[in-house]
Fold:
Amino acid sequence: MRIIAKAIQYLMLKIMKRLGPSDDDRPAVAAADQLLDKLLPSAFAVFRDERFREVCNFGKISQVEHDRIFNELEVSAIILCQFCIDDRMAIIGNRDFHFWETVRENMPKVFVDKLLEYGVKKSDADLYFDLIKMRHDQYSKIADGNRDHMENDKLFSEYKDSQAAMDTLNRVQAIIVGTADHIRRGKLKKGDELMRLLRSWLFPLDMEISKFIRKL
Structure:
């Protein structure tokens, strides 16, 4: 039944987007809501993964640290989605520019509204606005620095002829590095298995977000 309900919601969203007036932001807000319904359970699944918890030493850190790590995962999923929308030229060209800009702008607000529905205090929920903005700026800088490195790295030579592939690699790698470093509190080491675990999560999630953007 849940799958049927999701399919109906998606169909209604497509109808709203295509038939609604151009100045109506409700379809964009609904799209942000549906994207978050993909992103947040995905982050929670990683958080609950036994290997992830082992690598992050969950048995030796406090509940406060558990919560902090979960927050980082949620925010990273949201920023990945924002990056996908930023790079949508490679996915859908310039189609529906205003719509996707509005989706992107509304994601933090819709996320905070969801937290309030879950019973999170407003003062705590509002902190996510600043955290999302802060992490977005940080990961954007990492991505900018990565771009030159990737273009000159033999490991990425096979992707150089595809701007879309390079953009995907760049945005995902930036979030992997930034998220892992925050989880490790700035003590990330080369070859850390945490990077591999985040990679196995974020690349498929990037593909799922891109597919949503392409089909809507």
Observations:
- The chain has a mean pLDDT of 87.
